[in-house]
């Protein structure tokens, strides 16, 4: 056991073991921004142009697709999402400012749509029989030491895209996910 927040959460949930995507019946399966990747996560763009080490939707979905077909009793699946997607979007749009107050802003809408994809993924895991699925929204990295070295526009965009992606997560998936 460690002091990691996940262990505290799992312990209060009554669980004592943690698994990886290919471990059946491990009770806790955690998909996040650095689980199961070949390289350590980095926020340095030159070292990871597609932000794969931070975890994008495609990476988390691929991990989730390796869940055992039959859930174990009491399995808890935790999806900690968005970091790689947010940085990748911010990198892609460059100096274009994301307007957090404009619901028609295409980049804001793209982030909301990614959040909705994650909500649908969580719902699909639930529909496969995993009755305990926790979707952890993305943290705001706009004040991180890495982002502090970048432009004010980039910092604004990280904040706005994080907010938008998390809005996309807040949907009702009872009978299908819609925003």
Secondary structure layout plus pairing:
Elements: H1 5-13, E1 18-19, E2 28-31, H2 57-64, E3 76-80, H3 83-93, H4 106-127, E4 133-136, H5 145-148, H6 152-169
Parallel strand pairs: 1-2, 2-3, 3-4
Helix pairs in contact: 3-4, 3-6, 4-6
Question: Secondary-structure element order, as H and E?
Answer: HEEHEHHEHH
What is the straight-line distance between the termini?
38 Å
Q: In percent terms, what proportion of residues is strand?
A: 5-15%
Please give the count of helices.
6
> So what's the overall shape?
globular
Q: Determine the fraction of residues in helical runs and give it as a percent range.
A: 40-55%
> What's the arrangement of strands in the largest beta sheet?
1-2-3-4
Q: What is the mean pLDDT?
A: 77
Supply Rg.
17 Å
Task: Please identify the structural class as seen in this structure.
Answer: alpha/beta
The overall strand count is 4
Query: Unreliable segments (pLDDT under 50, ≥5 consecutive)?
Result: 32-39
For the largest beta-sheet, the strand count, sense and barrel status come to:
4 strands, parallel
Account of the protein in words:
The protein is an alpha/beta fold. Strand 2, helix 2 and strand 3 form a beta-alpha-beta unit. Helix 3 packs antiparallel against helix 4 and helix 4 runs parallel beside helix 6. The longest helix is centred in the middle third of the chain and has 22 residues. It is globular and about 50 Å long. About 4% of the residues have low confidence.
């Amino acid at each position: 056991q460690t002091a990691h927040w996940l262990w505290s959460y799992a312990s209060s949930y009554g669980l004592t073991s943690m698994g990886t995507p290919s471990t059946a019946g491990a009770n806790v399966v955690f998909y996040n921004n650095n689980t199961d990747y070949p390289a350590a996560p980095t926020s340095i763009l030159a070292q990871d142009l597609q932000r794969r080490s931070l975890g994008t939707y495609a990476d988390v979905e691929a991990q989730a697709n390796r869940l055992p077909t039959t859930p174990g009793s009491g399995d808890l699946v935790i999806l900690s999402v968005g970091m790689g997607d947010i940085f990748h979007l911010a990198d892609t749009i460059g100096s274009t400012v994301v307007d957090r107050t404009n619901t028609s802003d295409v980049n804001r809408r793209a982030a909301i749509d990614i959040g909705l994809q994650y909500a649908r993924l969580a719902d699909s895991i639930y529909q496969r029989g995993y009755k305990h699925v926790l979707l952890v929204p993305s943290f705001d990295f706009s004040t991180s030491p890495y982002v502090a070295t970048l432009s004010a526009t980039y910092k604004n965009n990280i904040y706005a895209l994080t907010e938008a992606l998390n809005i996309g997560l807040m949907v009702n998936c009872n009978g299908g996910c819609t925003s």
